[in-house]
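hey can u check if this looks right to u? its 242 residues, i copy pasted from the old doc so theres a chance i mangled smth
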Amino acid sequence: MTRVLRLTAQAARNTVLAALFAAALAGCARDLPPDTARIEALAMAAAQRGDMAAESELRRLAGGGNAVAERELGILYRARPDRRAEAMSLLRRAATANDAQAAFHLGEAYRTSPGNAAGPSAAWQWYQRAAEGGQAKAALMLGMMAKNGDGVPRDAATAARWLQVASELGNAHAMFLLSYAYRDGDGVAPDPQRARELLEESAEREYPPALQELALTVEDPQRASHLMKEATEHRRNNWNRF
């Protein structure tokens, strides 16, 4: 039964993707202004199905200076070793046009790409641009880089500031890390109550480490058991939302 349900869900996703792709091409064929949803549908078709027509349309839109198309094509090409230089160029153009998602992915490329001579330090400005544009994952990365001295000097106060920004943007991972900062007085004044509030909020957003940490601190055995079970289930389901 579980296998049937999985196959049914996959078929439904494929149907939705096909419909989105068809709508995207139809919109382009009518020369409608390409909106973000249509462009992202093209990117999904190109990435998940290897659809060359979708990729060709992305290239056309990117060539016309569409920042969303530049970003999506850059993300697509990041996974191809022979296109990484083009990916960086596309992402940089989109990021410079104030696309926060592109700035985040450009930061990721600088921080993680093998053989990148610039190193993680080059990622900082792009993460910052993305975070200032409301990208929560970028703010989280700034906090973690400052906390760990990854490409920048260790600075607990800077780390706490960016973790606060990410938390305010709803990032559960940042809430969890910031709860430790308030607990230990690391970059902020110690505040056990604020630390607990952040831990609870992170757990409410189903972040597994927060659920597990909370399970170890609550006095109610039944709630502790429930929290631990929930943490295990979310880990098993490959919880990866920051």
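The longest helix spans residues 2-29.
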